Amino acid sequence: MGFPENFLWGGATAANQYEGGYLSGGKGLSTLDAITGGSKDHPRMITYRTKEGQIERVNRDASLPEGATGFVEADQYYPSHVATDFYHHWQEDIALFAEMGFKCFRMSISWARICPKGNEEVNEEGLVFYERIFDELLKYGIQPVVTINHFDIPMYLADHYDGWSDREVIDYFLFFCETIFKRYKGKVTHWMTFNEINFLRSWTQIGIHQNDPQTLWQARHHLFVASAKAVVLGHEIDPNNQIGMMIAYIPSYPMTANPEDVLAALQFNRQQETFIDVQVKGQYPAHLLKYFEREQIEIQQEAEDENWLKKGCVDYIGFSYYMSTAASANPEQVKYVGGNQQPAVKNPYLEESDWGWAVDPLGLRISLCQLYDRYQVPLFIVENGFGALDQVMAEGEIHDDYRIDYFQKHIQAMKDAVELDGVDLMGYTPWGCIDLVSAGTGEMKKRYGFIYVDLDDEGNGSLARSRKKSFHWYQQVIQSNGEDLANK
Q1: Do 340 and 333 contact (CB within 8 A), yes or no?
Q2: What whole-number distance in Å separates Cα of residue 126 and Cα of residue 478?
Q3: pLDDT grade for 50, boundaries at 50, 70 and 90
Q4: Is 27:116 a contact under the CB 8 Å cutoff?
Q5: Active site located where (predicted)?
Q6: At what angle do helices 259-276 and 361-375 cross, to 10 degrees?
Q7: Half-sphere exposure of 224 toward its Cβ, with a 13 Å CA cutoff?
Q8: Which residue intervals of 155-239 are DSSP H helices?
Q9: With contact defined as beta carbons under 8 Å apart, do 146 and 190 qualify?
Q10: What CATH number has the domain bearing residue 187?
Q11: E-strand spans in 30-184?
Q12: Is residue 343 one of the residues assigned to a domain?
């Protein structure tokens, strides 16, 4: 029993948080290149330059000034510009991944590195960059798992097309997909279309300037159609391709047995399951159509959109799992809880990380069961991890037993779901297998990796890599195929 022999152990990163080299090698600007650093107490900021030459700074989810175009200020620190510099350290990092025993490596391709404006202009130097990475991974027997679009959009498409609210962006995205599907045929067979599609809602992520429900759901419809068309295209170009979706999955428990709290939890979970329903079942769920009716949201569709959604169902569900939450029908109890991205209730039965994220290993087993029972397609945990303050000892060692403890319990929950519940689980790629910039806060001190990177929140440091204690522990886990979880 236990995990299958071909189980994909590995780790996960994203270009905008890890790669750096933001204008190197012909790369164009992306929206996340305009977002500053921050902290859990001081939100990240976006800078803009208006057509009149004035620079304005607004909150991340605020609307752009009329006529503004994305820009970056020279006197601000932008973590994505260097990130933790995979652009110049990829050979060293891949060697460390191989030393840990990775079977796969989940990474994203920067759309703006391949198509600097997001349109049909192709940057050959960007294609070569990723080709070298894939060849290096395959040299060590590590399968690339590629997220096609991870939390950003070429700035040109945001400025000139209002991002994904414009249907024309679907065609530009498919051109990007066709380019990479053909170029990397035989090198990459595991793909995901959009990272955490249920969290895509802002200028930085999808290039929209207004976040009203009509604009947002129209943009989401375009994302759904683009994903479906990409699945069909990817299968046509290479029948060996396995193309999945990716969602942030946060199971919600009723705060009490009060039926009203149970209904509140059901409605919370529906907010996530809607995105899976469309991409796995190929249609909008009835409750969402009723929501559109109530809110007078009219989605502009073309005649063949429904057929595309049905034809372009994904091969597997990739999902992130960091925490669970609780739901209450009492509005006085419901407020934003750290990391959840949605209003929720603090669960008194769970401990939390330094950033207020509930730690719930059993919730991962519950999530696996709920998803597999509902959808009956293979599952892939493509993010899971523990952001923490790591202390470098005088001798250079990092004793991150708290991280090992977190992973021990979550991997055991995975194993129970496979052995006891019969869940079809493809693999496991913990988030930030190497230290990278936090997407939510822009910090470096919120560290996830098995590999330490010498860099601080202001961008100071040598970028030197070193192994944490968890590095050797995860190496042991992979070597034993998940059988040896002991902290030795």
Answers
A1: no
A2: 32
A3: very low
A4: yes
A5: 383 (nucleophile)
A6: 60
A7: 30
A8: 155-161, 168-183, 203-206, 213-237
A9: yes
A10: 3.20.20.80
A11: 45-50, 55-59, 68-70, 104-108, 143-149
A12: yes
Q: What is the pLDDT of residue 332?
A: 84
Report the chain's terminal Cα–Cα distance, integer Å: 24
Distance, in Å, from the CA atom of 134 to the CA atom of 132, rounded to the nearest integer, reads 5
Give the position of tokens 């991280």. 403
In the structure encoding, which two tokens stand for residue 425, read together? 């689980």
Q: Classify residue 476 as exposed, middle or buried by CB count within 10 Å of its CB (0-12, 13-18, 19+).
A: middle
Active site residues: 383
Per the domain annotation, does 44 fall within a domain?
no
Place of tokens 């705060």: 255
Domain count, the chain: 1
Question: Could you please report the per-residue DSSP string of 428-457?
Answer: E--BTSB----TTT--SSSB--SEEE---T
Q: How far apart are CA 25 and CA 129, in angstroms?
A: 8
C-alpha 86/C-alpha 353 separation (Å) is 27
Q: Which residues pair with 190 in a beta bridge?
A: 145, 242
Paired sense of beta strands 425-428 and 379-383, if any: parallel
Lowest average pLDDT, out of 61-70, 202-211, 327-336, 358-367, goes to 61-70
pLDDT above 90 for 66: no
Phi and psi (nearest 5°) for 293? Answer: -65, -45
Whole-model pTM: value is: 0.95
**What amino acid is encoded at 42 in this protein?**
H
Mean pLDDT of 400-417: 98
Domain-embedded: residue 356: yes
Residue 72 lies in a domain: no
Residue 183 DSSP SS3: helix
Type of residue found at 28: G
DSSP tag of 174: H
Percentage of the chain with pLDDT > 90? 81
What is the spatial distance between Cα 350 and Cα 356, in angstroms, rounded to a whole number? 11
Give dist(CA 488, CA 401) in Å, integer: 10
Structure tokens at 480: 């034993």
> What is the three-class DSSP state of 290?
helix
Number of residues that this document lists for the chain? 488
User: Which residues, 6+ apart, have CB-to-CB distance to 286 below 8 Å?
Assistant: none
Domain hosting 145: range is: 8-36+79-479
Task: Specify the 3-state DSSP secondary structure of 229.
Answer: helix
The rounded mean pLDDT for the chain is: 93
